[in-house]
């Protein structure tokens, strides 16, 4: 068979296969069961406006286009290696399609056409891409051969990929989805995920994404069942099909039969019954069997989550990720807007402390308005981000500090700094805080007295190892085990291909947690854990045993962690932690932890 014929046969087979029930395995990143209908996120032709560029800006425009093409190629390479996890015809078919997309990005009619349109017509890259793509697409679509005319879809897909990478557009299409939708996409960014409304959306499933990335964290916070990293999901999923997402088991079922739906409905009822029982714990204290109180706080990304935190019985907010105020918009929120958003959260928490982290943008958390300031880095996770960006762009930091100070008049707040790696960064922020406070006073505004405590995230190995020095300049520590694990083990937390290596139980990570905790306890400053391990009841005995007395987690996780704490013995946990810290094998540590949890429940 010629390769075109093979392609036709494959497409036909794919169509025929659509009706049957089909199960997929992936990374279950947020528990729960969603039953509904598929909504495939079509990247949709992004509408872009055309504008003229000056002669001396042509080279820069070409570079923008080339950067977007390179990014598209990187994405396609990632998708290809994900496709290699499949076997036989499936791997072949998907590989074939991705290869075709890759070819369109290398010295093709598309790329050459865009380059000459930018040069000759002096238009912006987006307009040039849109023009060339619709031309090529029309040419294909007008062909009489159904297989070749279907290639128009591929051209459009490639064009949209370049446009999305040029404009960094977030999906806006989630707003009007019918109730019961389950979003299926190649990848959702944290900003995309923030737009999902749990009232209408029952869950989501994607081809790319890792377990500890912010998309996963967001899914857990919103209580949305989610499965990521399914290589061939988009080959079979079509909008409108029936679908089940089992976030606990990491399974997605397309076109479930009535018997499968009934089975999952029963499972869902059991989960809901368990959850109702757990809400009875809401008013009970978080205290171990031998009387040790443990503070349970909530991680909050979106203002609406503060109410969920209160509902779950949180004793405050241990981590407010302010970067979400900067996402899904083209401009920066000014001081006043930030103040209003923070004030709302502080007031919702009714006098309980709210720990507000300054902007932690960069890496996978992107804000369009800051795109030009972050720059293109080969290693964004190690680049200009978080506190480094805030200290470089002082107007950003000053606006945040002013908004936090003003919100602090409405209830207790603490200021938390992300990605700290040296004492000098903390000193610079403290200096900035004093200046901002003086300026606000001159404006006649009321300020919290004394000024709020200034704490640091311990999430970079260098910070953990110099924790004793940091206690001299910081008022409290919050251990970010997500990044601490990523940076200690050199594993990208959002990268599904190395997800199997991501392990907070690695002795290197645990030793850093222990070192930082002991430094804080010696200096008598509060220390909490606010990474994802804080919300997993399994880790509670180890963290308590290491001396942690405050845990901050997604509101949904709080009841289960409280249940675990109320069943724990604090002294036994301390003995257990000593035993764990003598180990050097993470597999053995995981086994000891499982045994301890099995015994003590
Ligand atoms: C962490 O790194 O553990 C953390 C809590 O911060 P984030 O997940 O926002 O990076
Ligand atoms: Mg972090």
Helix content: 40-55%
SS-derived structural category: alpha/beta
Radius of gyration: 26 Å
Range of strand content: 5-15%
Task: Describe the 3D structure.
By secondary structure, this protein is an alpha/beta fold. The protein has 24 helices and 16 strands. The strands form two sheets. Strands 1-8-7-3-4-5-6-2 form an eight-stranded mixed β-sheet. Helix 2 (58-83) packs antiparallel against helix 3 (88-103) and helix 2 (58-83) packs across helix 6 (146-167). The chain is globular, with a radius of gyration of 26 Å. The model has no long low-confidence stretch (mean pLDDT 89). Phosphoenolpyruvate is lined by residues 217, 319, 321, 360, 459, 480-483, 530-531.
List the helices and strands and how they pair.
Elements: H1 3-17, E1 22-25, E2 27-30, E3 33-40, H2 58-83, H3 88-103, H4 109-121, H5 125-141, H6 146-167, E4 181-185, H7 190-194, E5 201-206, H8 214-222, E6 226-228, H9 233-236, E7 242-246, E8 251-254, H10 258-279, E9 295-300, H11 305-311, E10 317-321, H12 335-348, E11 354-357, H13 371-374, H14 386-392, H15 394-407, E12 413-417, H16 423-442, E13 454-458, H17 461-465, H18 467-470, E14 476-479, H19 481-489, H20 507-523, E15 527-529, H21 540-545, E16 550-554, H22 558-566, H23 570-581, H24 586-600
Parallel strand pairs: 3-4, 4-5, 5-6, 9-10, 9-16, 10-11, 11-12, 12-13, 13-14, 14-15, 15-16
Antiparallel strand pairs: 1-8, 2-6, 3-7, 7-8
Helix pairs in contact: 2-3, 2-4, 2-6, 4-5, 5-6, 12-15, 14-15, 15-16, 19-20
Bound molecules: phosphoenolpyruvate and magnesium ion.
């Amino acid at each position: 068979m010629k390769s075109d014929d093979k392609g036709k046969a494959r497409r036909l087979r794919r169509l025929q296969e659509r009706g049957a029930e089909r199960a997929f395995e992936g990374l279950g990143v947020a528990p729960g069961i969603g039953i509904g209908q598929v909504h495939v996120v079509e990247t949709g032709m992004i509408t872009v406006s055309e504008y003229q560029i000056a002669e001396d800006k042509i080279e820069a425009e070409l570079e923008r286009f080339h950067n977007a093409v390179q990014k598209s190629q990187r994405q396609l390479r990632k998708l290809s290696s994900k496709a290699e996890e499949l076997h036989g015809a499936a791997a072949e078919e998907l590989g074939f399609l991705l290869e075709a997309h890759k070819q369109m990005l290398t010295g093709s009619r598309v790329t050459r056409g865009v380059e000459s349109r930018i040069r000759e017509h002096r238009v912006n890259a987006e307009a040039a891409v849109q023009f060339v793509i619709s031309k090529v697409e029309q040419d294909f679509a007008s062909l009489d051969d159904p297989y070749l005319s279907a290639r128009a879809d591929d051209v459009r897909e490639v064009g949209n990929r370049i446009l999305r990478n040029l404009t960094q557009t977030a999906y806006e299409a989630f707003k009007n989805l019918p109730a019961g939708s389950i979003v299926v996409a190649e990848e959702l960014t944290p900003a995309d995920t923030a737009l999902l409304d749990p009232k209408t959306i029952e869950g989501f499933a994607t081809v790319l994404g890792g377990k500890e990335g912010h998309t996963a964290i967001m899914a857990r916070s919103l209580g949305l069942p989610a499965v990521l990293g399914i290589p061939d999901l988009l080959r079979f999923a079509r909008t409108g099909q029936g679908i089940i997402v089992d976030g606990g088991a990491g399974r997605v079922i397309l076109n479930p039969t009535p018997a499968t739906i009934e089975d999952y409905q029963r499972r869902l009822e059991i989960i809901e019954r368990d959850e109702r029982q757990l809400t009875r714990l809401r008013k009970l204290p978080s205290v171990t069997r031998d009387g040790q109180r443990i503070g349970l706080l909530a991680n909050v990304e979106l203002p609406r989550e503060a109410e969920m935190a209160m509902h779950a019985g949180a004793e405050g907010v241990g981590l407010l990720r302010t970067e979400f105020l900067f996402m899904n918009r083209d401009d920066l929120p000014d001081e006043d807007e930030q103040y209003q958003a923070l004030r709302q959260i502080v007031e919702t928490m009714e006098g309980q402390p709210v720990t507000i982290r300054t902007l932690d943008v960069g890496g996978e958390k992107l804000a369009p308005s800051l795109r030009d300031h972050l720059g293109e880095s080969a290693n964004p996770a190690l680049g200009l981000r978080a506190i480094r960006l805030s200290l470089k762009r002082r107007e950003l930091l000053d606006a945040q500090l002013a908004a936090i100070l003003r919100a602090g008049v409405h209830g207790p707040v603490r200021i938390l700094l992300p990605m700290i790696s040296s004492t000098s960064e903390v000193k610079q922020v403290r200096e900035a805080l004093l200046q901002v406070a003086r300026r606000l006073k001159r404006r006649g505004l009321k300020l919290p007295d004394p000024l709020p405590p200034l704490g640091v995230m311990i999430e970079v190995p260098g910070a953990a190892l110099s924790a004793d020095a940091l206690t001299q300049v910081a008022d409290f520590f919050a251990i970010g085990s997500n990044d601490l694990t990523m940076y200690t083990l050199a594993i990208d937390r959002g990268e599904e291909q190395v997800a199997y290596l991501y392990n907070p139980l690695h002795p290197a990570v645990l030793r850093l947690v222990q070192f930082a905790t002991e430094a804080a306890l010696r200096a008598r400053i509060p220390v909490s854990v606010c990474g994802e391990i804080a919300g997993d009841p399994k880790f509670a005995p180890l963290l308590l045993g290491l001396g942690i007395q405050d845990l901050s987690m997604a509101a949904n996780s709080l009841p289960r962690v409280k249940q675990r704490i109320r069943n724990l013995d604090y002294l036994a946990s301390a003995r257990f932690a000593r035993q764990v810290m003598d180990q050097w094998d993470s597999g053995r540590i995981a086994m000891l932890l499982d045994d301890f949890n099995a015994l003590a429940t």
